[in-house]
Amino acid sequence: MAAAAAAAVGGQPSPQSEPPQPELGRDKAATAAHLKAALSRPDNRAGAEELQALLERVLNAERPLARAEGGGEEAAAGGGGGGGSGGGPGTAEEEALEWCKCLLAGGGGYEEFCAAVRAYDPAALCGLVWTANFVAYRCRTCGISPCMSLCAECFHQGDHTGHDFNMFRSQAGGACDCGDSNVMRESGFCKRHQIKSSSNIPCVPKDLLMMSEFVLPRFIFCLIQYLREGYNEPAVDVQSEKDLHKVLQLLGPQISFLEDLTKMGGAMRSVLTQVLTNQQNYKDLSSGLGENACAKKSHEKYLIALKGSGLAFPEDKLTCGMQDQAAGTSSLAVSGFAGATGTSGQVDSSDEEDQDGSQGVGKRKRVKLSSSVKDQSIMDVLKHKSFLEELLFWTIKYEFPQKMVTFLLNMLPDQDYKIAFTKTFVQHYAFIMKTLKKSHESDTMSNRIVHISVQLFSNEELARQVTEECQLLDIMVTVLLYMMESCLIKSELQDEENSLHVVVNCGEALLKNNTYWPLVSDFINILSHQSVAKKFLEDHGLLVTWMNFVSFFQGMNLNKRELNEHVEFESQTYYAAFAAELEACAQPMWGLLSHCKIRETQEYTRNVVRYCLEALQDWFDAINFVDEPAPNQVTFHLPLHRYYAMFLSKAVKCQELDLDSILPDQEMLMKLMIHPLQIQASLSEIHSNMWVRNGLQIKGQAMTYVQSHFCNSMIDPDIYLLQVCASRLDPDYFISSVFERFKVVDLLTMASQHQNTILDSEHERSMLEGALTFLVILLSLRLHLGMTDDEILRAEMVAQLCMNDRTHSSLLDLIPENPNPKSGIIPGSYSFESVLSAVADFKAPVFEPGGSMQQGMYTPKAEVWDREFDPVMVILRTVYRRDVQSAMDRYTAFLKQSGKFLGNPWPPYKKRTPLHPSYKGLMRLLHCKTLHIVLFTLLYKILMDHQNLSEHVLCMVLYLIELGLENSPEEEPDEEEPVGGQERCHDSWFPGSNLVSNMRHFINYVRVRVPETAPEVKREPPASTSSDNFASTQSSRRPKVLQRENSGTAQVFSLVAERRKKFQEIINRNSGEANQVVRPKTLSKWSAPGSAPQLTTAILEIKESILSLLIKLHHKLSGKQNSYYPPWLDDLEILIQPEIPKYCHGDGMTAVERILLKAALQSRLNKRIIEEICRKVTPPVPPKKTSSAEKKTLDKEERRQKARERQQKLLAEFASRQKSFMETAMDVDSPETDIAMEIVTPEQQVSEAVYDCVICGQSGPSSEERPTGLVVLLQASSVLGQCRNSTEPKKLPTTEEEQIYPWDTCAAVHDVRLSLLQRFFKDSSCLQAVSIGWEGGVYVQTCGHTLHIDCHKSYMESLRNDQVLQGFSVEKGEFTCPLCRQFANSVLPCYPGNNVENSLWQCHSNKSMQELIKEVEELQEQLGIFPVSISSETNLSKEMESVMKDIKNTTQKKYTDYSKTPGSPDNDFLFMYSVARTNLELELIHRGGNLCSGGASTAGKRSCLNQLFHVLAMHMRLYSIDSAYNPWKKLTQLLQDMNSQLCNEEQPEVPVLYRDVSSLLLIQILTMPQPLHKEHFKCIVKVLFTLLYTQALAALSVKCSEEDRLAWKDLGTLKKNMCNSEKSWEVLLSLVISELSKGKLYLEGETEELGMVNPIAWSPDNIERYLQQFCLPFLRITSLLQHHLFGGDLPSCQEEEEFTVLASCLGLLPSFSETAHPFTSASCLDWPVPAFDIIPQWCFEVTSFSERHAEQVKVLLIQESKWDLPHLLQLPENYNTIFQYYHRKTCSVCTKVPKDPAVCLVCGTFVCLKGLCCKQQSYCECVLHSQNCGAGTGIFLLINASVIIIIRGHRFCLWGSVYLDAHGEEDRDLRRGKPLYICKERYKVLEQQWVSHTFDHINKRWGPHYNGL
After folding, report:
1. pLDDT above 80: residue 819
2. Where are the beta strands (DSSP E) in 1193-1250?
3. Looking at residue 1074, what DSSP letter applies?
4. Which of 125, 216, 711, 1034 is 20 to 30 A (C-alpha) from 542?
5. How far apart are CA 238 and CA 1430, in angstroms?
6. Chain segment 100-112, per-residue pLDDT in tens
7. In a 3-state reduction of DSSP, which class is residue 1575?
8. Residue (of 985, 998, 984) closest to 932 by Cα position
9. Are strands 1806-1808 and 1797-1800 parallel, antiparallel or unpaired?
10. 3-state secondary structure 1770-1801
């Protein structure tokens, strides 16, 4: 079939010149059907030709693009076809696509055709391709390859419970591996891909896809032609890039069409594969032969493009490289780089393009290598044989357009395609690299490349096949080498002039921008496959090339120490260098190591080690290295050393190789050790601040070198290599090298003064500490010397936990893991968890209110501190030096707490794991004379208080001695020495090399070189002396002095003698006799002023051994004479069972005791000598002269410690003060602990309240002239409006079905009620019948501090001039309280006079109810009169006005304007009393919605309601209520002619029964003159209660059914004549029912429509309960009000008795001891007018209203009284539920998926954060929503970050997350992607802060959002 099609494709003459043929005229479907029929005939030649002609015409590649390019020579060349088909540029393409769709469908409908093809999809793979930022999953439990990933759908449909999985945001894009058993285990497949479905799918009918086979080749060729046409070789200008984008945009529909085809499933994919890989088709169509001019031209463009890429068509090259190569093994001609100096390089074409000015980078001359290194065939030859190959070629040329990448990847589920495509990809690999290097968008391009390659190379089978058939490894290594060659420079390490070594230049873009990472990542990926890695390790040629590659990084980024002035420009190239070594060298190394785990792989290791050593030898030669490293230089990059070290380690640990068989000779070992040692010394120099002039970056390097991601590829191999060298080299040589590298040789002299020629004295101490610490690490570290992986993991974990408590994720991050994910411990693996649970305890997150959000932390278990704390490991792993101190502080605290040791402990000595036998030689370091001399010298110097020695030095010295005793060689024969034994070998330092015996060896005299000024010079030398060991090294730096040597003793060290002249002297002198070093006395006795003092020889009398020094040190440390007493004298057991736990922890004395005990145990002689010394010891007499100065250094530590303790104490005190203050400031229920009680509690006599001003500190009353004010924060709040009347919590919607409707919120209900009233009644009266402020009400809160208002003004002025950036806006009046720093924005003036004025009026007056009613009415009449006359503008009244303005401006206009006539005074009136209502209601909510808890206000002394009332009252009294409308009259008087009053108005007043009683209360009280008398208050309450009760009865009557009503009506009439009937609810209810039934109230078809159907049988109990519930809200508000106005505590009570308690508290209840019968709410009634008169009057208003609007009557009567407390929405347990629903949800405004979706936690609205699509008048959606939903406060959950963000007015802050993972940690931005679960406590804290309006106080990090959220 395909062949026939191909034949037909051939050379038809191009029909563009002829007139259109009839087929085009006929409609498409018919043509298609006709052609399909023609082609299905057995002889389809004619049909094929007809189709061919049609396709030629339809798919003509010339027209559209020529037009798109808008003229230019391209269009001119495009021939006359340009004007052919009219219309815009897109039309021809659209037409062509329509034709293709029709033809494919063969005349049927395209959609049906698609469905038909899908039915035959045999693919069992998912293969879904995604691009960057897609959310996918990775399950480590199911993955075989570390790159395995699943789309969300497959993940959720598979079963991964309990697996180690995480969600991640794809960076480069990827594809779903579900169903691919090469990459993941089948158990993880989802339900759709579990069945291998190919078997049961029917075969595809032949004719279904027949048309596709004809049409698609032509279509793809057309696409290729477009790509050829559109490409112009980019000139220097960037203009061409835009053209490329334009071409791609035009081709969008075509590529999308192909993409859609791939989605039709396996059947269509196999047709496409066939088309793309068929070589015949390609040859016929694109060869450019034949007479078709257009095809010719396009072929020419293709050839030009190939040439321009520096690639050749193989025909042009006579030697066809590819063929030779396929035949033999890899023909990589690799020549050593020795000859490759800068001149011999030749420049080939591809490099010329790099020359355009980019050379300047890094300012160093680039080095070109001769191109013999490269295999030309790999780099420069490309030949395309199929559409697929050319398509990939253009995909690369166009820099990987996303759509093309997606199309090519979508085809991968087809196996044949996968293989073909992989081979094509490999074939183009070099070309990809060249394009990448030139690309301007290398980041995007890298991502797209990896997107493709990771799909191909993660599959082991495929990788193996391509390696065998296409030389994949050769190609990759060559390409990498070639890439790096473009940025080489000459190495300046060691021999700057003559060095032949070249290194990469880290300043080049290639390294700085990590451009190489796609290639390296592919290389690492293929090396993770065992079969591929084996090929690599067996191929010697490849290994050589690879070592060449690695050597480019050896010694890069060289640092030279600045000695004079600070470096001008700190280069940041070091990060590029570390990244390059880690990614390009270390990761491939770890990949290879993971395949060298067993004995059988020994050969591989030998290969690597062999070529590594060769490369190292070449390197030493190239840099001309002999034996001394160049001074003041350091490079941290020695990848060759590290390869060598790691393979050695592996060989010994896993492959049982004999170490010596792969070690080089001694000379090479000496060379190998120099550079790693140089790094260790430089680290010490950097930490000693010797490199400060190099800037901060050098510290950065030192830190990166040991940092957790780098340490096991850098410092660990270095130290291991040094350990190997130390174990094989002469120990004296090694030790002296160490001290020489650390530059402290001159310091190691017995003399009290010395000269150091290479080190300033201020650096000596820390360098000495560095050298000793390095030795301790070298000798105690066992990471590669015998520890198992689990032991290593445990040690690492303990070290990290000891420094600080850690979260799980930071631990994972800090434990160095294998950088190559394929090998060894995967973080999060089982061993990690089990080790963690063994060494640490989990501390669950705790919450202090107002405290910071804690994370779940792991802290070391007690026994870890006790037994496993290892300071050596801590020192090795700390990036910051302070962490070592932190670990020691924590250790000290543990010991104090557990009572194990109370002093200042020293770092504990820890027993080490045994050494692997191969490294036993390492311990010889501890038993060499050189070290013993150093230890002896240092002990002596410390004892004599020489300068520059610290406790740390002593600690390390003792540590080394103890190590030596622990690892002493086989027992020495304990021969009894004669008593004179000490004298026997008086003339040399030590007799042997064993530390145990050397410890007791006495040294009598030592000859030293000292400055002439030193105190030692005076003495004359006695007969026998030892020469000071290191003094001689000074001679090497001065003219050589005559020296005689004893050749007899020198022979021992002959091995080293030839190598190093300098060390020869030291070594000889180590054993040489003192009298042989005869130095001539210096000639000149005097020294020039200012020059260094002359050196002279002096002889010191010492007469000490190490043992005696230790014992004297013990005395010195204890500060007592003869403090040491050998413990075995009392208790012989000690010697038999030596492990004494009491010595584990302790200070220096304990350490000395431990050492002496071990020494005694190891030799009887030592034991005897210790006893002897103890008998005759006298206190050591240090030279007097130095003592005073030197005392200081030892005391310094103690002083420091004391200072630290003092500081701790102060801090603790401060913290506790702060805490108690925080509690008072943060609404924690502890009012007792208030700090300064600014508002003084009232005394019994009336005195004025006194206030303290927190600014000027003066106290005094608030006066009208100089008012004092409270610091307050005014904020608009809609919290009240969020109360709902159901106790059922509202959930956050997580499916389309769940939606939240706000109609049942308190705000909505009140809104509806007000608008209903406004429809039927007079506006001004409506505005007094309700309260507003449920939404956008103003809440006033204070911290309780007061200040003078004039002080405040000047404070604000100073804030305004303050340049510091504050988190608040001073312009808006915001500030922080000067005392407690709480956020505030206004000052509320305090009213002069006593705070709680009316304590006087507490006594009950005997006035009757009627008198009081009259008085209240009169008081309301005299509105104009004020105690503070407002006519004379006083400061106070001004301030009151200004604060009122502030209150008004706090909320938006829409929340204050409810009147129909804008700006009417009724509005202000309503707003003012509503502010009071809002604050009372909110306080009620803060108390939990009821007053059962009693006590003072929770805000304690910090309530500002009293002051607020004064301000409101003063303003309310500016409005007079017309006496005719005063509700007071309606409540307390009978009106005469009700009818007349109702009829004469258009809109009547609101009936009293519809009015909100609490609002009436506030109106009455605020319009009375202040101060208010308590009796008047009580009177008002009594009157209002009668109204409230009647409302309750009316509501009840509406709620119950017709029968109930009749029953109650009759019952009531019976009881009517009893005494006290006015206080019986039955009577009153019956009265209300009979009055209301006069109107049309009860007629309206039963209560069903109100939805209030209550199946409750209304028993008397139920009715009583209902009435009480109805009245309670009013009683609560009134009690609170009374509490604030008149003082007095609120009584506490049980919930069931709340009604009675409050009623009696308000004086409604006569003392209820009289009433024996059960209490009823009605007994509280006290009718001002007989009930039987006034109730009918009230009911009449309602019935007359019902005449007109019967349907609304009932709705208005039933007022909702029971509101639940406000809550945030309930969140689901698992975060994934939210994430999956919302992260793909589209925005309702723009229907796109928002980049940052968020959801409001108050109302559940979905919003776009920062979304520009939803911006309205410069406000972004979140800000807008926060204003509409929360009156300026918004709480949003950011879906993609799991974090909550708070918006408060013009500021916002990140609050934290309420979802934590299994380890109690947040996962901000979902970086880790672990499953997250709701943390109920945190959510409660969030809700608490929302309800209590304390976001501003508790969260500290606020910033302005500029309306951009």
Report:
1. no
2. none
3. G
4. 711
5. 76
6. 888 777 777 788 8
7. helix
8. 998
9. antiparallel
10. ECCCEHHHHHHHHCCCCCCCCCCCCCCEEEEC
